[in-house]
Amino acid sequence: MTTITSAATLPGEAGFCRTQADREQREADMATLANVREKHQRAADRWTALADRAAGRAASRDARAAPATPVPQ
Question: Segment Disordered: which positions (predicted)?
Answer without folding.
Answer: 53-73
